[in-house]
Prior knowledge:
alpha+beta, elongated, single chain
Amino acid sequence: MQSSSSSSSSCVSLAVGVGGIKKSSWFAVKSVCSNTTLSDPCSVMAAPKWAQKTITLPPHNRGCHLITPKILKEIGEDLSGFNCGLANLFLQHTSASLTINENYDSDVRADTETFLNKIVPEGRSAPWKHTLEGPDDMPAHIKSSMFGCALMIPITNGKLNMGTWQGIWLCEHRDEPTARKVVVTLNGI
């Protein structure tokens, strides 16, 4: 337990056990401050907070699509309440993927789709056993595994802290456009 005091206020950090796994313990740090003022160092300590929202993306044609504006529109109000933290985006599908890449030149998205189609064979002559859902389904699963279904992005001063030319892409790997769901979880202070 650590304690610091400034004038008439005090701040105490307590380690609270929250799990019991063999040979390992999980702890959450809980800060308790009393009589805080703006001049008190303890008053700048904020309790961690969470926010979560499921976003339904409209159907997109096969290919890579910039979805940053849609994501920001949906989470903007919650996001603005975080000074520092992490945003986790989780796509609830196995035949599409998320990635971060070029947000300016759409040729990059087209070239990425061309690359994926060259390295993952498709069609009736492809060597896949899983074909019950169509000749594009198994290649879609492989492409989804290559890019993944989750992203972790830092939050700084109420904004996603990405580079100037970075954007969030939804990569649709199926021929038939399908609505997709992304769970966005924000955690921080």
